[in-house]
Design brief:
With 201 residues, this protein is an alpha/beta fold. The chain has two domains: 109 residues, no CATH class; 52 residues, no CATH class. Strands 1, 2, 3, 6, 7 and 8 form a six-stranded mixed β-sheet that branches. α3 crosses α4. This is Phage prohead protease, HK97 family.
C-alpha cells in the first residue's frame, strides 16, 4: 500500500513496482506466492498480467497450488476463515531516500522478488481482497464451494442452493456407483465451470 508507514518504518512510493513488473513480463516469467516468505515453500503463482499499480498500491490476482503444496491448503483455510489475510513482498531496493527527521525510509524503486501470504504483514493495510473457488478438471468441489461458484456464475441464492444440494449430490452418488454417463456429464460440467472461475488473492 502506498503512503502507509509499515512496522519497519518504511513507506512505498507510487511507481516503485512498475519497472520490475515490466521487466519480469518481458522475460516471460511471473512471481511466486510464498508461504510466510519461505523461499523453499512456494504455494502458488501470481498472474503477471493482473499485477499492476492502482491508486492504493500493488494489486494482482493469483492461484494456490492446492493439489501440490501442503502449506497452500493451510493458507486457503486461513483465507476462508479470514484469520490469515496478510500479504507481504520480498524485494531488493533499487532507489530510496531517508528522512533523518522522521526516520522514515521511502522506497522509490524496488526489484520485486515474491509476494507472500503471511499471518502478520509489516504493512497492516496489505490484505487479500477476495477468494474465488476453482473446480479443476476431473476434481469434485465440496458443496459450499460449489454453491459459491454457482452464485459467481450468476445463479440466485435459491437456485445455487438447490443445484448444489440436489444436483451435485446426485452426481457424487452416481460417480461412486460407476455410472459412465454421469461421469461424462460431470466432466463436461467441470470443464464449463472451470472456464469462468479462477482463484483470486
Amino acid at each position: 500500500m502506498f503512503g502507509t508507514v509499515d512496522s519497519y518504518n518504511e513507506v512505498v512510493a507510487p511507481g516503485a513496482f512498475l519497472d520490475s513488473i515490466a521487466e519480469t513480463k518481458v522475460k516471460g516469467r511471473t512471481f511466486p506466492v510464498l508461504w510466510q516468505h519461505r523461499s523453499g515453500e512456494p504455494i502458488g503463482d501470481w498472474d503477471i498480467e493482473s499485477l499492476k499499480e492502482d491508486d492504493h498500491g500493488l494489486f494482482g490476482t493469483g492461484q494456490l497450488w492446492l493439489q501440490d503444496a501442503a502449506y497452500a491448503k493451510i493458507a486457503y483455510r486461513g483465507m476462508q476463515s479470514r484469520s490469515i489475510t496478510g500479504l507481504s513482498i520480498g524485494y531488493y531496493v533499487r532507489d530510496s531516500s531517508y528522512d533523518e527527521k522522521t526516520g522514515i525510509l521511502t522506497l522509490k524503486k524496488l526489484d520485486l522478488v515474491e509476494i507472500s501470504i503471511v499471518t502478520t504483514p509489516a504493512n497492516d493495510d496489505a490484505r487479500i481482497d477476495a477468494i474465488k473457488a476453482r473446480i479443476a478438471h476431473g476434481n469434485l468441489p465440496n458443496l459450499p464451494d460449489f454453491e459459491k461458484l454457482l452464485r459467481e456464475a450468476g445463479f440466485s441464492k435459491t437456485q445455487a442452493t438447490v443445484i448444489a444440494s440436489r444436483g451435485l449430490k446426485h452426481l457424487l452418488r452416481s460417480e461412486s456407483e460407476g455410472d459412465s454417463e454421469q461421469k461424462a456429464a460431470l466432466s463436461e460440467m467441470s470443464q464449463r465451470l472451470a472456464s469462468f472461475s479462477l482463484p483470486q488473492l
